[in-house]
Amino acid sequence: MVPGAAADRNHRGWRHRDPVSRAEVEKIVALRTRELERANQELLHSQKMRALGTLAAGIAHDFNSILSIIKGSAQIIETNLDDPEKIRTRVDRIKTMVEQGSGIVKAMLGFSRAGKEEKLCDVNQLVSEMKRLLGDQFQHEVALRLEPGAPVGHIRGLGELIQQMLLNLILNAADAMGGHGQIVLRTGRLERAPSNLVLAPAAQPPLIYISVQDHGSGIAPEVLPRIFEPFFTTKAFSTRHGTGLGLSMVYEIAKEMGYGLMVESTQGKGSTFTILIPAAGESEN
Asked: Exposed, middle or buried by CB within 10 Å (0-12, 13-18, 19+), for 217?
């Protein structure tokens, strides 16, 4: 007898004696399918909750920035009650920041609905208003220099959201320089999209750009691909900075509004973040 033949016959006999019917196979497959569907639903729910948590944290981050400016303005009013001009300036700033908050709420209620409320905006004017929004207290430590291009035209969008993106980029730049130094804001017009984009704009050129340049420590090449991830930060955590949400909110707003993003950075020299926005049609300028 060939070795193993008996065992082989026994094995074949066992399979013959205990066949698995087609109905049983279908039952097992159906059970496994239901288990997979349930696991997939749980995974989707977990992902949705995680995304919701990230969004909520991002909104809290942006509102914290707004409230910091409002608080600073209120403190200046409190110590200058006999100076009507200073009071008027700070009250105007508070009103503007409240409008910023309202713009964020509109966006979070649904970008598609907010998109219907887009207005024609002068980019140079939006950028020039950043000095007033940030106030003297911020600019006492960080110099904000504006270099607007020749009239670059208009864009159609939500001015509050663009300024919120700029606020996050400016605060990030200030952090990169340790709270001291000069930040340069530039505007211009491009007839051709750059090749090194982090995020491509939804529309074809012409594009209007707004760049925020710092002279900080720069970003390490191995870190650069992760800077727009929620909660990713190389800074120590604090209630104002280092949460890892400012840049992620910039990215999410840009993506939802169809804007482009570009980052250029050299270690030891600084970084430049650029927002690219589709220009309004010639008939609208």
From this structure: middle
Distance between CA atoms of residues 176 and 39, nearest Å = 43
**pTM exceeds 0.85:** no
Decide if pLDDT at 180 tops 70.
Answer: yes
Q: CA separation (Å) from 222 to 21, 41, 135, 214, 243?
A: 56, 35, 35, 20, 20
* pLDDT category of residue 72 using cuts at 50, 70 and 90: confident
Q: Which two tokens stand for residue 117?
A: 């409320």
pLDDT tens digits for 214-255?
999 899 989 888 888 877 776 543 334 455 678 888 998 898
Domains, the chain, in order of start with CATH, read 117-284 (3.30.565.10)
Q: How far apart are CA 247 and CA 265, in angstroms?
A: 15
Handedness of CA 244, 254, 94, 211 (dihedral sign): positive
CA geometry: angle 281, 119, 111, nearest 5 deg: 105
CA distance 175 to 89: 26
CA gap 51, 45 in Å, rounded: 10
Q: Rounded distance, CA 81 to CA 218, Å?
A: 42
Query: Tokens for 86?
Result: 């200073």
The answer to whether residues 210 and 172 touch, using CB atoms and an 8 Å cutoff, is: no
- How many CA atoms, within 13 angstroms, populate the side-chain half-sphere of residue 224? 19
Cα-Cα-Cα-Cα torsion 10, 11, 12, 13, nearest 10 degrees, comes to 50
Question: Token match 């700070």: residue?
Answer: 90
